Amino acid sequence: MSGDGRNRTALQLVGVVVVMGALAWAAVPAYNLFCRVTGFGGTTARAEGPASEILDRTITIKFDASIERGMPWEFRPKQPEMTVRIGETGLAFYEAYNPTDRVIAGTASYNVAPYSAGGYFTKIECFCFTEQVLQPHQRVEMPVTFYVDPEIVEDEEARYAQHITLSYTFHETELPEEQAALPPATATELN
Fold first, then answer.
1. Which residues contact residue 44 at a Cβ distance below 8 angstroms, ignoring those fewer than 6 apart?
2. Burial of 36 (0-12, 13-18, 19+ CB in 10 A)
3. Separation in Å, CA 166 to CA 66, 69, 145
4. If 0-12 CB within 10 Å is exposed, 13-18 middle and 19+ buried, where does residue 148 land?
5. Cα gap 131→173, rounded to integer Å
6. What is the signed CA dihedral for 22, 24, 30, 34, rounded to 10 degrees?
7. Residue 141 in contact with residue 78, Cβ under 8 Å?
8. Cα radius of gyration rounded to whole Å, the chain
9. Buried b vs exposed e over 102-141: b needs ≥16 C-beta within 10 Å?
10. 101 contact partners, CB below 8 Å, separation of at least 6
11. Which whole-number Å values give the CA distances from 158 to 121, 148, 169, 186, in the listed order?
12. pLDDT digit string (tens) for 171-183?
């Protein structure tokens, strides 16, 4: 093989590595966007306010939390579950803690199980809608306000769900420029 052939092969391999790296970097945001648009994977709905109707039927909401491998935060739900009436607005809290000596930014991806109920689990406000930045040793409580859409009782697959599990996974993200430029400061911990 001539020198030109080896150079061309090397450049092609470098191009493949760059493309694969870019795809890996964009995988989490692209997956989240895909799920929000299609409802795939139990992705939730979003609303500006509470449901217009509250039913007498109740459903149990279970809360789950995890972190991406290498994400140094501690992350957990404040309560393992709650029971709400279908259509009733619920408020749950998750807790995140940055045990390191550096500022860390993170975003949460989420899903709902069973998948058939995902489109009926409706978030009004959620920490997952924006990036979260924790200072060194900062502990925060992050709320999620939600309801289960009363239309769930009309769905052939979802109507028999006795519980819904809301799962979040935090992923470390690049710090915004204005945060990265600030000197580290220890924030007050929650009691």
1. 110, 112, 118, 119, 121, 122, 123, 146, 166
2. middle
3. 11, 20, 12
4. buried
5. 8
6. 130
7. yes
8. 21
9. ebbbbbbbbbbbeebbbbbbbbbebbbeeebbbbebbbbe
10. 136, 137, 184
11. 11, 11, 24, 46
12. 999 887 665 545 4
The two tokens of residue 39 are: 């409802």
**110-152: pLDDT as tens digits:** 999 999 998 999 999 999 999 999 999 999 999 999 999 999 9
Burial class (CB in 10 A: 0-12, 13-18, 19+), 54: middle
Between residues 35 and 19, the one the model is more confident about = 19
Identify the DSSP state of 87.
T
Any idea which residue has 């040793």 for tokens? 137
